[in-house]
């Protein structure tokens, strides 16, 4: 087994980057820790905490007799009424969507929207993410590029399309005479899902008001959608990216209509280089439209 002491700084950096992209978020400690035992102990502690109030209530004389006395009226009542279930801590999805919509519509600028999203607590993804990954670039360019979600390096840097995905996107854009500084770059979901998994439908619904408000505030003239999840999210179909790519369609976001073109995500080009020729065709079509 190779020790970390035997690796050069560059090799260590490459190893850390590899683990970060794989979804590893914790480093090993000096001494081994039995996480399974910790988890079982935590469950037992919670169970004891829940059982303690019930034990105290069941052993009281009033409860043993089956009657309790109210503090206000002095009248006795049954000790075992049909009490409602313990309320859940999580915000219901419908309420979370409503709160997200209210927060998004209240923002009158991208700066205000960012502040509102930083204060928003209705999406569970925020609990596991390191950073909010907000829109970055030139909002006045008239060109907006939208990806699906932040990945590990994006979450670490708090910037959309960092790391190798960003490098590949830079090459894609430079092929048609653009750069990051020429566009506004964002994601559908602003918080990284654990392990880089695809956001659930409920998570996407909660985040929808935020990305639609970004589009409405930036008022782009053309939008480039990256990847399968993003195309399905905005076009409302179950078609794959290979079925929707290269076709101009109209995107509606908060009453703002804008022509949008879907193409492959940089990850699709990294994992399968044969996809580069398809992406190049789409990028040429995008360049022709924005130039015209």
TrEMBL record:
Record key words, sorted: 4Fe-4S, DNA damage, DNA repair, Hydrolase, Iron, Iron-sulfur, Metal-binding, Nucleotidyltransferase, Transferase
Biased composition (Polar residues): 56-74
Signal peptide: none
Matches recorded under PANTHER family: TYPE-4 URACIL-DNA GLYCOSYLASE, TYPE-5 URACIL-DNA GLYCOSYLASE
UniProt enzyme class: hydrolase
GO term, biological process aspect, one: DNA repair
InterPro entries referenced in this protein's UniProt entry, alphabetically: UDG_Type-4/5, Ura-DNA_glyco_family4, Uracil-DNA_glycosylase-like, Uracil-DNA_glycosylase-like_sf
Domain Uracil-DNA glycosylase-like: 134-284
Single GO MF descriptor: metal ion binding
Keyword DNA repair (UniProt): yes
Record-listed E.C. numbers: 3.2.2.27
Pfam families for this protein: UDG (PF03167)
Protein name: Type-4 uracil-DNA glycosylase
Reactions catalysed, as given in the entry: Hydrolyzes single-stranded DNA or mismatched double-stranded DNA and polynucleotides, releasing free uracil
Residue span of region Disordered: 47-88
Family: Belongs to the uracil-DNA glycosylase (UDG) superfamily. Type 4 (UDGa) family.
Species whose genome carries this gene: Sinorhizobium fredii (strain HH103)
Domain of life per record: Bacteria
């Amino acid at each position: 087994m190779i020790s970390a002491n035997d690796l050069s700084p560059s090799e260590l950096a490459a190893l850390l980057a590899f683990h970060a992209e794989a979804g590893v978020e914790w480093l090993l400690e000096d001494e081994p820790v039995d996480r399974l035992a910790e988890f079982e102990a935590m469950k037992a502690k919670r169970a004891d905490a829940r059982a303690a109030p019930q034990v105290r209530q069941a052993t009281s004389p009033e409860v043993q007799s089956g009657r309790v006395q109210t503090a206000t009226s002095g009248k006795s009542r049954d000790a075992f009424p049909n009490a409602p279930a313990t309320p859940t801590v999580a915000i219901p999805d419908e309420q979370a969507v409503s709160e997200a919509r209210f927060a998004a519509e209240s923002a009158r600028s991208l700066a205000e929207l960012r502040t509102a999203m930083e204060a928003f607590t209705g999406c569970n993804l925020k609990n596991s993410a390191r950073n909010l990954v907000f829109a970055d670039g030139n909002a006045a360019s008239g060109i907006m590029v939208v990806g699906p979600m932040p990945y590990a390096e994006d979450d670490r840097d708090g910037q959309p399309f960092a790391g190798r995905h960003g490098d590949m996107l830079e090459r894609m854009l430079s092929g048609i005479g653009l750069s990051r500084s020429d566009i506004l770059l964002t994601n559908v979901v602003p918080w990284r899902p654990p392990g880089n998994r695809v956001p659930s439908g409920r998570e996407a619904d909660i985040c929808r008001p935020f990305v639609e408000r970004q589009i409405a505030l930036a008022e782009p003239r053309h939008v480039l959608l990256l990847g399968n999840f993003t195309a399905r999210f905005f076009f409302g179909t179950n078609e794959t990216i290979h079925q929707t790519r290269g076709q101009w369609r109209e995107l509606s976001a908060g009453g703002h209509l804008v022509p949008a073109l879907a193409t492959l995500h940089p990850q699709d080009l990294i994992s399968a280089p044969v996809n580069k020729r398809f992406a190049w065709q789409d990028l040429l079509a995008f360049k022709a439209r924005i130039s015209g």
